[in-house]
């Protein structure tokens, strides 16, 4: 399970991949906490200047899942809230698939099914 600092390091490492292609410094601008992880918004800035922050193309936020330890780049063409909802649906489908697989494995062994209250949703 990731901590927020672990997640931050994952994002910074991914930002390093971009850093060589732009002339500005990059930084994490904002972090949004989610029930299952974080969203890191990032962008370019000019140190010590009062000019507007330069805009980058393709600098969509990163979603980091604390349990699955995934770093998921989000796009800029679809609202972030919709992408989060899509990811939450993906998590539910994955949990359902794990539960179904576990239930089938137990049934094939001929042992009683585990208590449904213990299944992961």
What do you see in this structure?
This protein is α+β, with helices and mostly antiparallel strands and 121 residues long. It folds into two domains: 1-76, no CATH class; 78-121. It has two helices and four strands. It has helices at residues 4-19, 80-109, and strands at 25-34, 37-45, 62-65, 70-73. It has a four-stranded antiparallel sheet with strand order 1-2-3-4, covered by helices on one side. Strand 1 and strand 2 form a beta hairpin. The two termini are 17 Å apart.
The strands making up the biggest β-sheet line up spatially as 1-2-3-4
Overall strand count: 4
- What's the alpha carbon Rg, rounded to whole Å? 20 Å
For the biggest sheet, the summary is: 4 strands, antiparallel
C-alpha end-to-end distance: 17 Å
Give me the secondary-structure topology.
Layout: H1 4-19, E1 25-34, E2 37-45, E3 62-65, E4 70-73, H2 80-109
Antiparallel strand pairs: 1-2, 2-3, 3-4
Concise structural overview:
The protein is an alpha+beta fold and 121 residues long. It folds into 2 domains: 1-76, no CATH class; 78-121.
Features:
121 residues, alpha+beta, 4-stranded antiparallel β-sheet, 2 helices
